[in-house]
Specification:
By secondary structure, the protein is an alpha+beta fold. 44% of the residues lie in helices and 23% in strands. Strands 1, 2, 3, 4, 5 and 6 form a six-stranded antiparallel beta sheet that branches.
Length: 338
C-alpha cells in the first residue's frame, strides 16, 4: 500500500522538487511523491503496487532489476545509480529522459524498503550537448586557422625560394635559406597544433625532432657525418612559449650545422630538454665541433642569429649561458606557462 499522504513524513517528501520513489523487495511502488508525479506524469494512485518497470525504458528494466537485487545483497545502504553516466526514466506518454539518481535501503516496520531519489537533467544534458557542439565548432575553426597560417607561411617560404633563384651571390642565397628555415620553424608549430587533439599545448619533444630533421635536410647533412643525439623529457608548451623557444633551437642547430664541422668533419649535435623539480625547463643545444674563436664575445655579437637568440631568451624571461667546450654549448632555462 502507498504510504498515507497524511503522514508527516510523506508530506515533507511531497515538498521536494526531486522525484522520491520507494519500492518493496518485490520492486513494487509503495511511495510516489508529488515530485515523481510531476516528473513521470502518473498520479500516485495510478502506480500504487505497480512494478518499478513502468517507470523505466523497456531495454533498461532488466538491468535496473538486477542492480537493485545486487544492492539488496550488499552491505551498502546507499549508493549513487549510474555512476559512470546518467540513467533514464520513462514518462507516462512514453518519452524517455535522462536523470541522476541515488538509492538507499532502510528497514521500516520489519520490512525492507528501497528509496530512489531522481532528478530530471534533461535541460542540463541538452545544454551540455549544445556546449560540446559549440566547442567542437570552435576547435574545428581553430584547426582551420592554424592550417591556413601554416599554408600562408609556406607561401612566404616559397616566394623567398623563388627570389633566391635570381641571386648569384652565395652569401645572399644563404641568408634567404636561413629566413626560410625560421619561417619553417613557426609553420611547423601551427602544423603540430592542426594535427593535434589539443589546441592549447604542443608536444615539444616531437616538435624538436621534426625541426632538427628538417634542418639536417635543409643543409644537406647526413646522419652518418653529423649525428643528432636527443634527451627529451615529455614537455608540453603553449604557443607563446613554443614560438620563441623553437626559433632559438632553429638558430643554434643551424649555427652548428653551418660552422661547427668544416671540411666534411664528422661530429655530433646534442639537444637536451629537461623539466626540473622546481618546474623550470632546461634546454641545452651543444656540439663537439671546432667551437667559437678564442675571445669571441657572443653576448655582444652582431650576427643576426645570436642577436635573435638573445632577444628571444629575454622574451621568454629565460637565463641564457654558454657552456665550456669542446665545441659550442648553449644552455637556456625558462619557466613554461602553467
Amino acid at each position: 500500500m502507498l504510504l498515507d499522504r497524511s503522514d508527516p513524513l510523506a508530506r515533507i517528501l511531497d515538498l521536494a522538487d526531486d522525484a522520491i520513489i520507494s519500492i518493496d523487495t518485490g520492486q513494487h511502488i509503495i511511495l510516489f511523491n508529488h515530485g515523481a508525479e510531476r516528473m513521470f506524469g502518473y498520479s500516485a494512485q495510478e502506480v500504487e503496487g505497480k512494478p518499478l518497470d513502468i517507470l523505466l525504458p523497456a531495454g533498461l528494466a532488466e538491468i535496473h532489476r538486477a542492480h537493485i537485487h545486487q544492492f539488496h545483497q550488499s552491505d551498502v545502504t546507499a549508493r549513487r545509480m549510474g555512476e559512470r553516466s546518467v540513467i533514464h526514466g520513462r514518462r507516462r506518454d512514453g518519452t524517455e529522459f535522462p536523470a541522476e539518481a541515488s538509492i538507499s535501503r532502510v528497514e521500516v516496520d520489519g520490512r525492507t524498503m528501497f528509496t530512489v531519489f531522481m532528478r530530471d537533467v534533461t535541460r542540463r544534458t541538452v545544454a551540455e550537448e549544445q556546449l560540446k557542439a559549440s566547442l567542437h565548432e570552435k576547435e574545428a575553426l581553430l584547426k582551420e586557422i592554424h592550417h591556413r597560417v601554416k599554408n600562408n607561411l609556406q607561401v612566404i617560404s616559397s616566394l623567398l625560394a623563388l627570389q633566391a633563384r635570381a641571386v648569384t651571390d652565395d652569401t645572399t642565397k644563404q641568408r634567404f635559406q636561413e629566413s626560410r628555415d625560421r619561417i619553417h620553424s613557426m609553420a611547423l608549430l601551427h602544423e603540430s597544433l592542426y594535427q593535434s587533439d589539443n589546441l592549447a599545448w604542443i608536444d615539444f619533444p616531437e616538435y624538436i625532432r621534426q625541426l632538427a630533421a628538417h634542418l639536417f635536410r635543409s643543409y644537406g647533412v647526413t646522419a652518418e657525418r653529423i649525428r643528432l643525439r636527443t634527451e627529451l623529457d615529455r614537455l608540453f608548451l603553449n604557443m607563446d612559449t613554443a614560438v620563441p623557444c623553437g626559433l632559438i633551437i632553429n638558430e643554434l642547430i643551424s649555427n652548428s650545422l653551418k660552422y661547427a664541422f668544416p671540411g666534411g668533419r664528422e661530429g655530433e649535435i646534442h639537444v637536451e630538454l629537461r623539466e626540473t623539480a622546481d618546474r623550470f625547463a632546461d634546454l641545452t643545444v651543444a656540439d663537439n665541433g671546432v667551437g667559437l674563436a678564442p675571445g669571441f664575445d657572443w653576448v655582444n655579437a652582431r650576427s643576426l642569429g645570436l642577436r635573435l637568440v638573445r632577444t628571444l631568451a629575454q622574451q621568454l624571461d629565460a637565463s641564457l649561458e654558454m657552456g665550456e667546450g669542446p665545441g659550442t654549448c648553449f644552455h637556456l632555462r625558462f619557466r613554461p606557462a602553467a
